[in-house]
Amino acid sequence: MQIFGHLDEALPPELVAPARMADITIVASAEELRQIAQFLLASAAEMDRLGDAYDHAHLHDHQRGFAQVPGLVVAASALAQC
Fold first, then answer.
1. What does DSSP assign to residue 80?
2. Which residues contact 55 (CB under 8 A, 6 or more apart)?
3. Which among 52, 51, 71, 53 is positioned nearest to 61, based on CA atoms?
4. % pLDDT > 70, the chain
5. Distance CA 61, CA 65 (A)
6. 44-55 per-position pLDDT tens digit
7. How far apart are CA 51 and CA 60, in angstroms?
């Protein structure tokens, strides 16, 4: 597993690049954590179902109430090799 993120520095999109993170902190309510857990489990099931065809999924596309920023994206391990 690898963790990547983007710094919130109000840069133009063409200047934003992912950075490898040593750790992350999630500040959330218990309900938000349950929703994130459901999303992660659903993403794992989709990875199993699609195999190498799995690409990525955004939390805000699958759970109501989550904005695009900050975003949570689950990506296939193969994408980190790029």
1. G
2. 75, 76, 79
3. 71
4. 94
5. 10
6. 999 999 999 999
7. 23
Can you tell me the distance from the alpha carbon of 70 to that of 79, in angstroms, rounded to the nearest whole number?
21
Q: How far apart are CA 67 and CA 5, in angstroms?
A: 16
Instruction: Return mean pLDDT, the chain.
Output: 87
Query: What are residue 45's phi and psi, to 5 degrees?
Result: -65, -40
Strand ranges inside the chain, DSSP E: 4-5, 19-20, 56-58, 73-75
The amino acid that residue 46 corresponds to is: E
| Euclidean distance between CA atoms 78 and 23, whole angstroms | 20
**Would you report the helix, strand and coil content of the chain in percent, each value rounded to 5?**
45, 10, 45
